[in-house]
């Protein structure tokens, strides 16, 4: 009966396929099973809800099987670890395991928040991310606008040069930074000395690190971000610029009156969405560039590096878990808030 | 007016030239240090132009190439297996989500997407992998944790959504089942997106160090990036590695510490830095090939 039903639906399509197609079709029973959920056949109406769902499942089972490896993967590597979040409320011991370890309530959190650690790493994470967003976005936008003014032949060369650091891992950037900052032989200290100035112990002096980290981050990502915005500018209809040119607008006027307003929605959405990621720091940048130097933690330590050290170097698993829990939960709240705002402002650009 | 115009163009070109130099010079410093004689390094510090040129650092490293070759081998293995498996899994999941007529479409999208917003964090994953899956010192610990990224699924889905449903429908009429449709029709049609994502996934695996830092202690399974991490933390890693010095059979006091450190960065990071830029446009395309909502 099902076959007939679906045959009816397919008649027009089958006609196009010609006689052969129709013949093949008649021989293939599974076709009916592959029919999508839309419009349940009349015969199923009397069945129970479970029966109907089972029936739907049967119809969709091949696609479901196709997605099953991915679903299982996410189950094991993303959803099961969420259960492990309870470690934050336990005194975890490797020999007792997750469920055997003793509950300690909020002790881990109490400890975290009574020392100044929580404040320090939260402040650093949020401030650094804010700085990266503000500096990175404005620099990339400016370069993209300027790049649009010069001949393509030249801009290709600049693009390649500026993009190069994107291909380095943070570890390798750590080497580059070390070549400059190394106390005894580093390029910067030797240059300072040659001008008769005192060398600076870069890996021991926390003061200049906010500037260093922001510069290194800019160095690594500015090329990539510039190309993203440049692609956006190229996508702007050239008629706007032609009309403006006829009206005698200057280049600067065009940038401020056409390019930036048209790019504004993308920029604003990117900004709001990065607020959602405020609590996720860049581990590689903050671990390798300061070379994990203990003197610098005050101004370089972020949530991610703290969690890693607590787990791997200090061995305080519960403390690490509590900090991770704090990061995950606040992170989720921020993402939901940010997306809520985007949905109010510009529903087309919200994530969901 | 016209002259002022040219002047501003010249100024922009000048600005970009300076910027390009600022970006490229640090690379040159690393290369220069690796090519400088050790004595000159302690005497003059790190300079862009070596006072006395020397290939000693490379000679020492390449005399006992095992440690570097093995790291290349591990990274190659992980990259190739990871990229192929990851790409297939990404495509399968993305295809199912891209099918508007799939009944569990929205549920699956949410299930995948939610992992982007919320995660158990480092500690639970670490305990799962070391205590329950027992993957410590296994190459699987390098491959599995980053095998399937929701972001890549969304990019792939954005591309696959553009494949006309009529193609799938007519294949069904010819009697093809979903698996056949996916492998014989959808995958070949998605070649551009597969190439882009394949490159991005390979790139991610190639430059991955975090999981190696967490899960790899066995010196035989150290990938390139972890070798770099350990050498950055202490150059002594090379000289205390008994296998390495054993092979050298040399006086350790003459080992060119500073230049060798930079030489290993060049040897480990250099080749890909030459190869990846040829695919530069793919890296940008990866972001634009499909929008999140599709």
Automatic annotation (TrEMBL), chain B:
Q: Which organism is it from?
A: Paenibacillus tritici
Q: Which UniProt keywords apply?
A: Cell membrane, Membrane, Transmembrane, Transmembrane helix, Transport
InterPro entries assigned? MetI-like, MetI-like_sf
Specify the protein name.
Carbohydrate ABC transporter permease
Tell me the SUPFAM superfamilies matching this sequence.
MetI-like (SSF161098)
Q: Does the keyword Repeat apply?
A: no
Output the superkingdom of the source species: Bacteria
**PANTHER family according to UniProt:** ABC TRANSPORTER PERMEASE PROTEIN MG189-RELATED-RELATED, POLYGALACTURONAN_RHAMNOGALACTURONAN TRANSPORT SYSTEM PERMEASE PROTEIN YTCP
Query: Transmembrane stretches, by residue range?
Result: 12-35, 71-97, 109-133, 139-160, 181-206, 262-284
Report membrane topology. Answer: Multi-pass membrane protein
Location(s) in or outside the cell: Cell membrane
Give the ABC transmembrane type-1 domain ranges: 72-279
Q: Where do the coiled-coil regions begin and end?
A: none
């Amino acid at each position: 009966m099902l076959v007939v039903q679906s045959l009816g639906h397919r008649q027009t399509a089958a006609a196009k396929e010609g006689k052969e197609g129709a013949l093949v079709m008649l021989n293939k029973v599974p076709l009916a099973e592959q029919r999508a959920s839309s419009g349940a056949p009349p015969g199923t109406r009397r069945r129970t809800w479970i029966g109907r769902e089972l029936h739907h499942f049967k119809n969709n089972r091949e696609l479901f099987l196709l997605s099953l490896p991915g679903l299982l993967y996410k189950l094991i590597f993303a959803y099961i670890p969420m259960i492990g979040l309870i470690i934050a409320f336990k005194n975890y011991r490797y020999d007792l395991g997750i469920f055997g370890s003793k509950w300690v309530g909020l002790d881990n959190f109490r400890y975290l928040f009574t020392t100044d650690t929580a404040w320090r790493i939260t402040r650093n994470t949020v401030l650094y991310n804010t700085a990266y967003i503000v500096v990175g976005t404005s620099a990339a936008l400016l370069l993209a606008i300027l790049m649009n003014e010069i001949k393509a032949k030249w801009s290709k060369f600049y693009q390649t040069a500026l993009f190069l650091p994107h291909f380095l891992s943070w570890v390798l950037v750590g080497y580059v930074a070390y070549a400059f900052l190394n106390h005894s032989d580093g390029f910067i200290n030797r240059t300072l000395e040659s001008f008769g100035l005192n060398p600076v112990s870069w890996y021991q002096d926390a003061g200049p690190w906010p500037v260093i980290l922001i510069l290194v981050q800019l160095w690594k990502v500015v090329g990539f971000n510039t190309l993203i915005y440049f692609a956006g500018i190229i996508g702007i209809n050239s008629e706007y610029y032609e009309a403006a040119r006829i009206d005698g607008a200057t280049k600067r006027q065009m940038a401020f009156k056409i390019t930036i307003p048209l790019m504004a929605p993308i920029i604003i959405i990117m900004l709001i969405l990065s607020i959602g990621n405020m609590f996720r720091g860049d581990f590689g940048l903050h671990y390798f560039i300061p070379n994990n130097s203990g003197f610098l933690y005050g101004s370089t330590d972020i949530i991610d590096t703290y969690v890693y050290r607590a787990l791997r170097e200090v061995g305080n698993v519960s403390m690490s878990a509590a900090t991770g829990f704090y990061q995950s939960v606040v992170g989720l709240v921020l993402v939901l808030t940010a997306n809520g705002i985007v949905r109010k402002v510009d529903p087309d650009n919200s994530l969901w | 007016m016209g002259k002022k115009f040219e002047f501003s163009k010249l100024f922009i070109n000048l600005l970009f030239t300076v910027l390009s130099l600022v970006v490229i010079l640090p690379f040159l410093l690393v290369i220069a240090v690796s090519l400088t004689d050790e004595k000159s390094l302690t005497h003059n510090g790190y300079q862009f132009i070596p006072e006395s040129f020397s290939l000693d650092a490379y000679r020492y490293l390449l005399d006992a190439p095992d440690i570097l070759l093995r790291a290349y081998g591990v990274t190659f293995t992980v990259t190739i297996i990871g990229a192929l498996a990851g790409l297939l899994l990404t495509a399968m999941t993305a295809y199912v989500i891209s099918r508007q007529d799939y009944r569990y479409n929205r549920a699956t999208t949410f299930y995948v997407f939610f992992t982007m917003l919320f995660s158990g964090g480092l500690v639970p994953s670490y305990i799962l992998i070391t205590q329950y899956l027992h993957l410590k010192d296994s190459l699987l610990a390098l491959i599995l944790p980053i095998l399937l990224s929701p972001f890549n699924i969304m990019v792939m889905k954005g591309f696959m959504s553009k494949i006309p449903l009529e193609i799938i429908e007519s294949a069904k009429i010819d009697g093809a089942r979903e698996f056949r449709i996916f492998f014989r029709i959808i995958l070949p049609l998605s070649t551009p997106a597969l190439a882009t994502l394949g490159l991005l996934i390979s790139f991610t695996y190639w430059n991955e160090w975090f999981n190696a830092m967490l899960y790899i202690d066995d010196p035989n399974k150290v990938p390139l990036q972890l070798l770099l991490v350990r050498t950055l933390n202490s150059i002594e890693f090379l000289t205390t590695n008994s296998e390495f010095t054993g092979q050298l059979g040399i006086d350790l006091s003459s080992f060119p510490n500073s230049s060798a450190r930079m030489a290993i960065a060049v040897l480990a990071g250099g080749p890909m830095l030459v190869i990846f830029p040829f695919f530069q446009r793919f890296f940008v395309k990866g972001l634009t090939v499909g929008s999140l909502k599709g």
